[in-house]
Predict the structure.
Amino acid sequence: MCAPDHYDVDYVINPWMEGNIHKSSRDRAVEQWQGLHQLIKQHAIVDLVQPEKGVPDMVFTANAGLVLGDTAVLSRFYHKERQGEEPYFKAWFENNGFTVHELPPELPFEGAGDALFDREGRWLWAGYGFRSELDSHPYLAKWLDVEVLSLRLMDDRFYHLDTCFCPLKDGYLLYYPPAFDAYSNRLIEMRVPAEKRIAIAEPDAVNFACNAVNVDHIVIMNKASKELKQRLADAGFQVLETPLTEFLKAGGAAKCLTLRVTEPVRVELHASATIESRIVQLEGHLLDSGVINRALDVIVEAGGSFQVLNFNLGTQRQSTSSAEVKVTAPSHDVMETIMSQLIDLGALPRPQEVCDAELEPVTQDGVAPDDFYVTTIYPTEVRVNCQWVKVDRQRMDGAIAVSPDGKSAQCKLLRDLTISDRVVVGVEGIRTIRKPSTRDQRNTQEFSFMGAGVSSERRVELVVEQIAWELRQIRDQGGRVVVTAGPVVIHTGGGEHLAKLIREGYVQALLGGNAIAVHDMEQSLLGTSLGVDMKRGVSVRGGHRHHLKVINTVRRYGSIAKTVEAGVLKGGILYECVRNHVPFSLAGSIRDDGPLPDTKMDLIEAQQDYARLIEGADMILMLSSMLHSIGVGNMTPSGVKMVCVDINPAVVTKLSDRGSIESVGVVTDVGLFLSLLVQQLEKLTNPYQVPQTV
């Protein structure tokens, strides 16, 4: 321990210090520290460290380092405000006969504040996330010859492991689960039996109940609720409370004020660490596109840590940048999760570390091996026999099946896998292809397709103008536009506009459900949609039966096409599809009336038909059909421009979030959108009239 001769709150380096600068009472702090000192002396031998001026937090000796046997690992403080303590603690360790190990200068590790031995000496719990880096944990395993279990801290109030985690005698654990991420909580539950885990509530946590000193069956802490004291008593522990409120103002309590130097040594147990590190490379317009930020966020959010080894910034407008990043994860599973997301961002291993993809055979039709790689919308290549092979039929949420000769690969849905297939597992030997666009191209995309953003109502006219240009260009170049539409198109008066787009050659395929076709034909045959007169906006007597009459009529003729040929259906969206030889596919659902003879009620068949029609598409217009639009989005590769129009922002966001920069969302009435689109196309088709002046 170290007396609080110079203790004060002189700066803010954690949430507890905010608002407490120079608000701590020196006299009260001394009194509280002495109370703790005397209490501990009744149960253990206490050595003192000489306090020094200019380092007020030296009183928190838990952060001096970590001790096991005659070995000490010196702390590397994260904040410069505490780095002045390091030489004093180093001198104390050396003067007391410890062999001192020092981490690299730029690798933070804050001693027993972030590293706590199991009280039986079986392993070392090591925290990271705020003050200590995950990369320090392999050093601890090596120097102390101990198994290290890494725990990620998530709540900045509990910035050190010892603020929310306290191993107790006989294998018990006192801890606050919300302070940790899901992986860490699973690890804790795997190592500590349920009957040994004492999870505390937030009121006890903020009183630093976990920041306790455990000597045999005595637990010394600042404060504990009656409930917690009873739970500890039931486990065979006696709680001794001593007020430490002055030290809470700096974010510490009983455990922070002490460093145990007689940790249990288990000579039969040796070093083990599940920590895994890899080095990846990123290349492109890393800053402008935000790729480097997204990559680093992915690493941290998934529970890893990173070190940027090299970063070469492009020196000119069109120059690309490159980065080399070391990724560290607490386990292989976490590393696989991180790497799969980094691959989606275009990350690659260093050339000398590239290896072939791991392939496993399918042993049951329709079932992939465990840990199969899940595909994305981005063009993908796999390394087989030291050669990169392009993956065909790229789509989301599939598996990669490699041919027996290793010369071809394709995305396959799980249901399409057969025993003869070999599937890519893990993340080795996989890369996604991200074309580095020029700055000018990016600016254009951000204006016309707004970088996958969701446009508000006031931007509709601008977005429509850009989409019209794209449609005109695609049509004139012989490209393909696929429309996915829901019945709202009809209800909002957009049917005539969509029909005109089909008639004038802007649409090459139509996808939808039973409802869009039924209501389109109801409007054409009976002038209503769901029984509502589309011109007057009022319900028609008996109108609720109109859609069934339409279905019955089409069923009588056998198909929509035959209904058109018979001269019964004379207008509308489906009429224009038949007359202009535009293929359409209607996917059924459990709520469909009839259904129409053309509606595919076999879901698998419908999906296959959808996939066939969107193949080779240059643009997909998604018009107020959430489920059909999401389904189409999932089977569409990157590079296809997607426009999602819906009055519900959640639908638009869902489609925009798929990650393609070629996607744009428009939150507006679909009928209004189609009307504006047709108007804009007419302006592009016809010459502009110059006003005459008199």
